[in-house]
Specification:
Chain lengths: ~300, ~160
């Protein structure tokens, strides 16, 4: 009973923080573009409105896929330690996290492919290609950290950086951090790497057939994915945190970096994006890996 | 709407597809060719949905009032909730109209999409009457593009 309650509370917390970040991100982008911008709680209003609307479904697989994508990401979230709290305790959660994170995107792929819209199919094929692009450098970064710490437990990696700020992996392995940041930008689908969404080109890609509640679920999925991905970076590079407030603040810093990059960059074509991800961040990550192995 | 007027501060933003849209803005004169697309877009939008007719051209034809292939009153073909007159209306007028529409939705005044379902025969007859003109006179057999795409509205 307690376990169920814990899972439920963790999910609500992740969704709340993710939506808050999305709203603040929109405001920040507006200020960078010298606009006034929507209120910071706009994302909550949007989700509320979307869930109150009539929605069009195409078939059962579409319903299932949308729920699977949200469920997959929520399941990932349960393995991520948040300031020492973790919903499900395991000893090798980094591998489980990376494994489960793909399920969310595969669920989304299943749902939108079932809708039968060609724009959606193009968007999904781009999203999966992009996944191939960012996972290789990100796994290389993780491999380096696993070798250094001798463990694949995210909790132990974050605990090993306790003490001063100089112990943070961000300072100890700056090259890894830069590579992970670039991979994170692609992971979140933010600007230089948003070829899968591309509203002007393929009519918002995977979301093209999503109306009402389905779009609301996609919003929630995005909110949870923001939470999970920033939480992984905070645990890997910024030493976790002693309380939840500091943890969320650190997550917000990471999210702000991606928002700043998002606000000023144009879009890569998909083949340019994958080429970039497999050369620049991959090169940096491999360099750091060699330095770690030589040490 | 541009960054100078920043319509996003009211929580309004452009969406790329009719499935995600609440409001359809018909901006400018409607030729018969455009009307087909407008009807198709309108019927693909999920309910509740609203239409904002923008500029004099959608109200009475504007300077195209006697054109052979331009409709004069959009409200005869799809139900219009709110109109902004002027040629061209200022951006402030459009933002004001959108906020008025929000108030109308709050008070329950704006429900033209229900009229479309109730009086479908009226709208369909009007649509067919003008869209007949788009059938080519010479060449292939007449084909009505709208056939089979009206299921959403009939539900």
């Amino acid at each position: 009973m307690m376990a169920v309650l814990r899972v439920f509370l963790f999910s609500l917390f992740a969704i709340f923080i993710g939506l808050l970040f999305m709203g603040i991100g929109r405001k920040v982008i507006a200020r960078i573009q010298l606009r006034y911008g929507p209120p910071f709680y706009q994302a909550f209003l949007d989700v509320g409105k979307l869930f109150s609307r009539k929605s069009i479904t195409h078939n059962f697989v579409m319903d299932l896929g949308m729920v699977m994508s949200l469920g997959g990401l929520l399941a990932t979230m349960l393995f991520v330690p948040i300031a020492g709290h973790v919903a499900v305790k395991t000893s090798t959660n980094l591998i489980v996290i990376m494994y489960l994170m793909a399920i969310g995107y595969l669920g989304m792929a299943m749902a939108v492919a079932a809708s039968g819209n060609p724009n959606a199919t193009i968007g999904v094929s781009r999203a999966l290609t992009m996944m191939l692009g960012y996972e290789v450098p990100f796994f290389t970064v993780m491999l380096g950290l696993i070798i250094v710490n001798g463990t694949s437990s995210l909790e132990l990696i974050s605990q090993s950086q306790a003490g001063s700020i100089l112990n943070w992996n961000m300072i100890r392995f700056p090259l890894s951090f830069i590579a992970a940041e670039i991979a994170l930008q692609a992971m979140m689908g933010e600007k230089p790497f948003d070829a899968m969404i591309a509203p002007a080109e393929i009519a918002s890609g995977p979301m093209v057939e999503l109306s009402g509640k389905y779009l609301g679920l996609a919003f929630l999925t995005h909110a949870v994915s923001i939470f999970v991905e920033t939480a992984i970076i905070v645990n890997l590079f910024m030493g976790g945190a002693s309380n939840i407030f500091t943890f969320v603040l650190k997550q917000f810093e990471i999210y702000l970096i991606t928002v700043f990059i998002e606000a000023v960059f144009p879009r890569f074509k998909i083949e340019q994006a994958v080429k970039f991800l497999w050369t620049v961040p991959m090169g940096i990550a491999v360099l750091q890996l060699i330095l770690i192995l030589l040490k | 709407m541009t960054s100078r007027w920043d319509v996003e501060r009211f929580g309004i933003g452009p969406m790329a597809t009719p499935r995600q849209a609440d409001v359809l803005l018909v901006t400018g004169y409607v030729s018969l060719k455009t009307l087909k697309r407008i009807i198709r877009t309108y019927e693909q939008m999920p309910e509740p949905k609203w239409v904002l007719a923008f500029g004099s051209c959608t109200v009475n034809g504007g300077i195209y009032w006697d054109s052979y292939n331009t409709i004069t009153n959009l409200a005869e073909y799809i139900p219009v909730d709110i109109t902004v007159s002027g040629c061209m209306p200022r951006p402030e007028a459009v933002m004001d109209a959108l906020q008025t529409l929000m108030k109308m939705i709050q008070s329950g005044e704006a429900g033209a999409y229900k009229k479309y379902k109730e009086n479908y025969e009226y709208y369909k007859a009007n649509q067919d009457r003008v869209l007949k003109k788009t059938v080519p006179i010479l060449g292939q057999t007449p084909k009505n593009d709208l056939e089979g795409k009206n299921e959403d509205a009939k539900e």
